[in-house]
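Customer escalation, tier 2.

The customer says the design service returned an amino acid string that "doesn't look like it belongs to this structure." They asked us to rerun it and document both sides in this ticket. The original structure tokens are below, unchanged.
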């Protein structure tokens, strides 16, 4: 467990219309996902001349941007997803935030946005979680947490297509329960044959809004076909399983192997994904990161070689997959989730401080 002293100085403007303890308690009773926001947000400006400056914490509220700002027209935007967890002793922690800081900067390079020093990233998170700590659900509340959404947008006005000379980095916070309405239950997946999410050389491994926008038409198609989420295949051969758009995928074999699509540049390198790979290796599971075809999936389930399938991400943690459907067919996963649920439990126990943090993955915020 590590703590780093705050080194960026934030000017704080307190929100005089803060939510009351009763209002916060009412939200935390059933927070849903991404529906409610805390009283403050952190912001840091960047300009080509001045670099990063004017770090501040201000009341949560609308941004005022010129309608010609680059973010609105050319999608120059990136974001991260993290969580703050309250432990039984009242302290508040986050999970592997240096990974998010590093990924944000990888995304920034791809989208021609400025890199943010990781200390500023961590300080912004610590500042806003500290001031809004009353919004972090109690340790007894089950699996609820405070979801953190750092993001960076191009704010310069003008319609010329070029990297913005003015940028805003911000962190907003939202109490979070289960990502899927209806709680933890196996999700059904639709194979997107019409569209790809990302192509080699594109932005697939960057966490940018455009990737999510590009997934929405397929997502709508999946819902029309009675599924919860969409599986994207590779753009070139339409054979290799990539990810769900918001989550990575894992396949548990009856012989104890764990397979996940390798990071080819078109898949988001999930922090949950890499943590689960490490936990599985430590359990002695044979872990394979490799290209994995949709036929291997269908055949593996049919033959009984694949015993469990799950999806993972920060927001949804680990979610079992129950059914895979495509135009003209479907296959139902076995109703077994032992490995899925025990990896889920192990990860959550670390995040909520119920198990020893033997990897030094936790970072204290409050
Ligand atoms: C996350 O899991 O944190 C994500 O960013 C996925 C989704 C909510 C966009």
């Amino acid at each position: 467990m590590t703590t780093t002293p705050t080194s960026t100085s934030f000017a704080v403007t307190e929100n005089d219309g803060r939510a009351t303890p009763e209002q916060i308690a009412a939200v935390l009773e059933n927070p849903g996902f991404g529906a409610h926001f805390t009283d403050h947000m952190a912001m840091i400006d960047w300009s080509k001349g001045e670099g990063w400056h004017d770090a501040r914490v201000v009341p949560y509220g609308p941004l005022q941007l010129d309608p010609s700002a680059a973010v609105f027209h050319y999608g120059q935007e990136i974001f991260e997803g993290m969580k703050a967890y309250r432990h039984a002793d009242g302290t508040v922690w986050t999970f592997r935030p240096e990974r998010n800081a590093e990924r944000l900067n990888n995304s920034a390079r791809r989208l021609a946005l400025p890199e943010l020093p990781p200390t500023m990233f961590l300080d912004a998170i610590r500042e806003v979680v500290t001031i809004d700590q009353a919004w972090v659900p109690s340790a007894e509340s089950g699996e609820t947490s405070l979801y953190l959404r750092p993001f960076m947008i191009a704010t310069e006005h003008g319609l010329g297509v070029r990297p913005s000379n003015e940028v805003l980095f911000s962190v907003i916070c939202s109490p979070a329960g289960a990502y899927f309405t209806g709680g933890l239950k196996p999700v059904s997946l639709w194979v997107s044959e019409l569209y790809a999410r990302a192509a080699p050389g594109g932005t697939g491994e960057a966490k940018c809004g455009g990737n999510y926008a590009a997934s929405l038409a397929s997502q709508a198609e999946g819902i029309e076909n009675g599924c919860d989420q969409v599986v994207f295949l590779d753009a070139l051969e339409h054979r290799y399983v990539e990810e769900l758009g918001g989550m990575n995928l894992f396949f548990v074999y009856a012989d104890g192997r764990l397979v996940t699509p390798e990071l080819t540049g078109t898949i988001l390198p999930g922090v949950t994904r890499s943590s689960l790979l490490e936990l599985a290796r430590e359990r002695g599971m044979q872990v394979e990161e490799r290209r994995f075809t949709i036929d291997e999936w269908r055949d593996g389930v049919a033959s009984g070689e694949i015993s469990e399938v799950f999806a993972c991400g920060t927001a949804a943690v680990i979610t079992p997959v129950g059914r895979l459907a495509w135009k003209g067919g479907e296959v139902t996963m076995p109703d077994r989730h032992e490995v899925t649920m025990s990896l889920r439990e192990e990860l959550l126990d670390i995040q909520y401080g119920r198990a020893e943090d033997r990897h030094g993955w936790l970072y204290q915020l409050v």
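Tier 2 assessment: The sequence is consistent with the input. The CA atoms of residues 101 and 117 lie 8 Å apart. Residues 1-5 have pLDDT under 50 and may be disordered. Sent an explanation to the customer and offered a walkthrough call.
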